[in-house]
Design goal:
Strand order of the largest sheet: 4-3-2-1-5
Structural class: alpha+beta
Shape: globular
Number of helices: 2
Distance between the termini: 30 Å
Strand content: 15-25%
Helix content: 10-25%
Largest sheet: 5 strands, antiparallel
Mean pLDDT: 74
Length: 136
């Protein structure tokens, strides 16, 4: 099962209002189904004003993590609706004498950042695992 790693700081929560299935040449894109929840880490908007970033992102591509699949990638900003801003507190640091914990954290971080990001076009097919949803 895929595991979502919560980042300290803020995350923007979005809900997919349309399904998106990337084509084979759209490496780095992430499939979303109508109704999926997607989390976007604060590092995507950095120190910029969140509202300004949100306005721009709705007409652009966004990088986030699909809560249903655990996958991270790009998706069209106009296929999602902003839900809320989530605040996460900093977790306690791992013990210094436990190399297994540090290694495991590093592996999880690598797993979530494998996607290569690229500009692509929208493919109007519905992901195969989006069963029972109505799509326009």
């Amino acid at each position: 099962k895929n595991e979502i790693v919560e980042m300290p700081g803020r995350q923007a929560k979005f809900k997919a209002i349309f399904s998106y299935e990337p084509g084979p040449s759209n490496e780095g894109d992430m499939a979303i189904c109508d109704g999926d929840e997607i989390l976007v880490d604060q590092k995507e908007w950095g120190n910029d004003d969140f509202k300004t970033w949100l306005d721009d992102a709705s007409a652009d591509w966004i990088v986030g993590t699909n809560v249903r699949t655990g996958l991270k990638g790009m998706f069209p900003g106009n296929y999602v609706q902003y839900v809320e801003l989530i605040e996460h507190s900093l977790p306690p640091p791992p013990p210094r004498d436990d190399p297994v914990q540090r290694h495991d954290h590093h592996r999880k971080s690598q797993d979530l950042t494998k996607a290569k990001l690229s500009s692509t076009h929208v493919n109007n097919t519905i992901p195969e695992d989006c069963e029972g949803s109505f799509h326009l």
